[in-house]
Amino acid sequence: MSATPFDQREGSIWFDGALIPWKDATLHVLSHGLHYASCVFEGERAYGGEIFKTREHSERLLQSAKLLDFEIPFTAEEIDAAKALVVRTNGKADAYVRPVAWRGSEMMGVSAQHNKIHLAIASWEWPSYFDPEARRKGIRLDMAEFRRPDPATIPCKAKASGLYMICTISKHKAERKGYADALMLDWRGHVAECTGANIFFVKDGALHTPTPDCFLDGITRRTVIALAKRRGIAINERTILPEELATFSECFICGTAAEVTPVGEIGEYTFTPAAITQALAEDYTREVQPKAKAAA
Ligand SMILES: Cc1ncc(COP(=O)(O)O)c(C=O)c1O
């Protein structure tokens, strides 16, 4: 991965309806999105030039904005076309794609009834979310101090920038202690998810994953569940208590950026990446390729 700062890279960014040079895609410091987190985004990956589940991501982006009480002035079709154009123009067939929508500068206060809604889309190379060597052995997770909040306190189904504040704090603390990421519990103390990915466990040949009632039901998570069903693997979506971690043999996390990443440790608990994690990681790799279908 290049160390060039993101504002100094080459390429094109789609900004409010047209492609512009990468370095010109700037916004004013008095933007509502920056001060009050009125900002939603997506993380997507293109494989072989095609964005995996592009429509689902565009629809989630539109829905996230609605949950923050704003309307993105583009349709899902227009957003899909713009994302495809960005990937084509930037010339990388395998790329991470980042649409982001935010309230502009017309009003600067909690109320933002008349602010313009902006949408930008960038793409860049992002081969592996975790260090490839750590990934092979299974990444190490810390236990986060912050918990996923009660859905009565936040729009928990929005992929909203404000909801990532506690994720960045948790990931930083984990990284400082030598871990790759952190597992977050929810406000009730149940196992929830990582700072940017959902989590699965394996016990006696079956999958166990927390019910997504206060965090993102990831597009990758749903894909993995479909792939597991195709293989006839039983899936238990349920409440998982932290003390149960000792009873699972395998663990992996999944998300657009993380794809399917084996986990070797969560705090004091250890897991051995084995057949089910490997099979689902391979199925996922096949599934995301354009027009390829994973083997049953
Ligand atoms: C907090 C969080 N949970 C879960 C996910 C997984 O979502 P998806 O599979 O749609 O990328 C992500 C990644 O976007 C995330 O940031």
UniProtKB/TrEMBL annotation:
Protein name: Branched-chain-amino-acid aminotransferase
One Pfam family of this chain: Aminotran_4
Top enzyme class: transferase
PANTHER family according to UniProt: AMINO-ACID AMINOTRANSFERASE, AMINODEOXYCHORISMATE LYASE
EC number per UniProt: 2.6.1.42
BP GO terms, sorted: isoleucine biosynthetic process; L-leucine biosynthetic process; L-valine biosynthetic process
UniProt cofactor(s): pyridoxal 5'-phosphate
Annotated NCBIfam families: ilvE_I, PRK06606.1, PRK07544.1
Protein role: Acts on leucine, isoleucine and valine.
Family: Belongs to the class-IV pyridoxal-phosphate-dependent aminotransferase family.
InterPro entries: Aminotrans_IV (IPR001544), Aminotrans_IV_CS (IPR018300), Aminotransferase-like (IPR036038), B_amino_transI (IPR005785), BCAT-like_C (IPR043132), BCAT-like_N (IPR043131), Class-IV_PLP-Dep_Aminotrnsfr (IPR050571)
Annotated keywords: Amino-acid biosynthesis, Aminotransferase, Branched-chain amino acid biosynthesis, Pyridoxal phosphate, Transferase
Protein origin, superkingdom: Bacteria
Pathway noted in the entry: Amino-acid biosynthesis; L-valine biosynthesis; L-valine from pyruvate: step 4/4; Amino-acid biosynthesis; L-leucine biosynthesis; L-leucine from 3-methyl-2-oxobutanoate: step 4/4; Amino-acid biosynthesis; L-isoleucine biosynthesis; L-isoleucine from 2-oxobutanoate: step 4/4
A molecular function GO annotation: L-isoleucine-2-oxoglutarate transaminase activity
